[in-house]
Design brief:
The complex is a heterodimer of chains A (419) and B (188).
Chain A (H helix, E strand, L loop, with lengths): L5 H19 L8 E5 L11 E7 L2 E8 L7 H5 L4 H9 L6 H16 L7 H29 L3 H22 L8 E2 L2 E2 L7 H23 L3 H7 L7 H6 L5 H5 L6 H4 L20 H24 L18 H6 L1 H12 L7 E8 L4 E8 L7 E5 L1 H7 L1 H5 L5 H11 L3 H5 L1
Helix pairs in contact in A: 3-4, 4-5, 5-6, 5-12, 5-17, 6-7, 7-12, 12-17
Chain B lengths: L32 E2 L10 E4 L4 H10 L5 E9 L7 E9 L4 E9 L5 E3 L8 H12 L2 E3 L50
Parallel strand pairs in B: 2-5, 6-7
Antiparallel strand pairs in B: 1-2, 3-4, 4-5
Classes of the chains: A mainly alpha (419), B alpha/beta (188).
Chain lengths: 419, 188
């Protein structure tokens, strides 16, 4: 081999590379490659494993494998009284525990037939807290989704503002995340005295900050290119797969549980249901962004009409008596003892309750056989149905990097998918 | 002082919730009957024989416009027979109506036809029912376990499956070997 200088040798290699590319151009990749994405992968939002078959960069097949976070919550609930099973619901979708509580409580109250006895203060507080929870969940979604696609700063701002909402939850229930604050029959405790002031100052702050999120992403050319016409979901497909929440609404179907099957007095609030048109990642993004604005408005309305009075029903067979009553009254002590050792016993029956969680329709199917423990508690998790869509929206239509965008736009929580 | 053990007072009196006019044409499906179990949410509930489930659901989807299958799950009524109930919750978005269909199954290895041909979204729900209850869905394209590991023994949500899981036989302490593995003591 003749002796060439470094520069010549380098140029020689470049020519070789060019020639290889020319040969390959136009010819499809003959070899398929199968790779594992997850279960430990930062962009799968938990322990989701995807088995992806690629032809070059194109996704040929994408098979989600779940079950890595299965904790048997439905089985555990069968061995606990209703009030104990409530604490399990916090742990399913760990980004919106209060809405999980809400779904469970709506189901149990229907079993007990006390839905119309809930005092107005409890109902308004439930709506207020659920909407704050929706905002906080959407902030985490926005942050992680944008970070997956390379926009780091959104995550930092999202976490900063979510922390303020968690402070409000801590004020009410004593914990930031696993609240169990909404209980059958009302609330766990009355709201703290400075609650209204805290929510009011948060709203003032957040309404000023919210437009900044829009400036970061909504009209950015880079964001368009990563999200427009990616993982398109047609309305027919969305219905066939049982998609709910922003995934369904981005495809143009106006289904929101809060409007169609109102619970906890949602029919008295004035809000709109934003819908999309194309059903792609960008539309899902925009629908959620607009949902946050509606949630802010609902929180404001709820704060304005927050009534005083009792926060629990007066039936001491269902809610525990107050501490001073237990200390002064024999009957209350007995009630207290019975409730915490035995719990309450709904009549035999079954119920399927729907609430709108941050991810879609959250259903609780509960069966009572007349004992103090549920015979069956099934959680219809919105992420479970929405995750099923992924192969149908991606296979043969997307590049490998689009998988990350698609996962982020579905907004899955594996704690809820696996239960 | 009132007596706290008065069981009837534990529950408020439940009035009969008026159910809506029949959403399912019972004359067309004579084997379908109304469920007499209390539906606390007022959802009309029907019990369908396993052989007719695909026909009934197709009728509901195409003519009743129940376009969305929300949920498929099961209940184990052990030790009562028929032991299993597979539950389908459906919703008609334009009509704002809901309906619940149940299928009763018995036996150690119950089977039911799949509805994945009608709703591809039923796929994972049926896999979950198979995994946790051991109910087999005939004609399902991918009948594998979904939550539990593939080599798992038993179906956890059955009522005769213990909450602590199936335990191994106890191993005597003097069988424990230094390497950390258990087994009968080795005699060299």
């Amino acid at each position: 081999m003749e002796d060439l200088g470094i520069k010549e040798r380098w140029l020689d290699q470049e020519e070789d590379l060019d020639r290889d590319e020319e040969e390959q151009e136009g010819a499809p990749f003959k070899e398929l490659m199968t790779i594992n994405m997850g279960p430990q992968h930062p962009s799968t939002h938990g322990v989701l494993r995807l088995i992806v078959t690629l032809s070059g960069e194109e996704v040929i097949k994408c098979i989600p494998e779940i079950g890595y976070l299965h904790t048997g919550i439905e089985k555990q609930a069968e061995t606990k009284t209703y009030n104990q099973a409530l604490t399990l619901t916090d742990r399913t979708d760990y980004l919106n525990p209060l809405i999980n509580n809400m779904g469970f409580v709506v189901a149990v109250e229907k079993l007990l037939n006390i839905t119309d006895q809930i005092p107005p203060r409890a109902q308004v507080t439930r709506v207020l807290l659920c909407e704050l929870q929706r905002i906080s969940s959407h902030l985490v979604w926005l942050g992680t989704h944008a970070m997956d696609l390379g926009a780091q700063s959104t995550f930092l701002y999202g976490m900063r503002d979510r922390e303020k909402i968690l402070d409000i939850f801590e004020m009410c229930s004593g914990v930031r995340m696993m609240t169990s604050y909404i209980m059958p029959g009302g609330l766990y405790a009355d709201l703290p005295p400075d609650f209204e002031e805290a929510v009011d100052s948060f709203l003032k702050y957040f309404k000023k900050k919210w437009p900044e999120y829009h400036t970061l992403l909504t009209k950015s050319q880079l964001w368009y290119e990563r999200t427009k016409n990616i993982a398109v979901l047609t309305p027919e497909m969305a219905l066939a797969y049982g998609a709910t929440g922003a995934c369904l609404r981005a495809s143009g179907i106006k289904y929101d549980v809060r409007k169609m099957f109102p619970y906890s007095g949602y029919e008295t609030y004035d809000f709109e249901v934003p819908i999309g048109k194309n059903g792609d990642v960008y539309d899902r993004f925009l629908v959620r962004m607009l949902e946050v604005e509606q949630s802010i408005s609902i929180v404001e309305q709820a704060l304005n009409k927050l009534p005083g009075g009792e926060w629990q029903i007066s039936d001491r067979k269902i809610v525990p008596p107050k501490k001073w009553e237990v200390a002064t009254n024999m009957e209350s002590l007995i009630h207290h003892f019975k409730l915490f050792t035995e719990g309450f016993k709904p009549l035999p029956g079954e119920v399927y309750s729907r609430v709108e969680s941050a991810r879609g329709e959250l259903g609780y199917f509960m069966v009572s056989d007349g004992s103090n423990k549920p015979l069956r508690m099934h959680i219809r998790a919105p992420s479970f149905a929405n995750l099923q869509l992924m192969p149908a929206t991606l296979e043969g239509k997307a590049l490998f990097a689009d998988i990350v965008a698609a996962i982020g736009s579905i907004d899955i929580i594996l704690g809820e998918v696996d239960r | 002082m009132t007596q706290t053990s008065d069981e009837s007072k534990n529950n408020p009196e439940v009035e009969a919730i008026p159910t809506e006019p029949s959403l399912l044409d019972l004359e067309r499906f004579p084997n379908v009957r109304k469920s007499d179990f209390r539906a606390a949410d007022g959802t009309p509930t029907f019990i369908v024989p396993a052989e007719e489930i695909v026909d009934v659901l197709r009728h509901l989807r195409d003519e009743g416009r129940f376009t969305m299958l929300e949920d498929v799950t099961a209940i184990d009524w052990y030790p009562r027979e028929p032991r299993y109930q597979v539950v389908y919750n459906m919703i008609a978005l334009e009509r704002e109506k809901v309906i619940r269909i149940k299928v009763e199954l018995s036996g150690e290895n119950p089977t039911i036809p799949t509805v994945t041909n009608l709703w591809p979204g039923a796929n994972w729900y049926e896999r979950e029912v198979f995994d946790l209850f051991g109910i087999d869905f005939e004609g399902h394209p991918d009948m594998r376990r979904i939550e539990m590991p593939d080599d798992w023994d038993g179906h956890p949500l059955r009522k005769d499956y213990p909450i602590t899981g199936k335990r191994r036989a106890a191993v005597p302490a003097n069988w424990l070997r230094l390497e950390g593995r258990s087994g009968p003591p080795q005699t060299n």
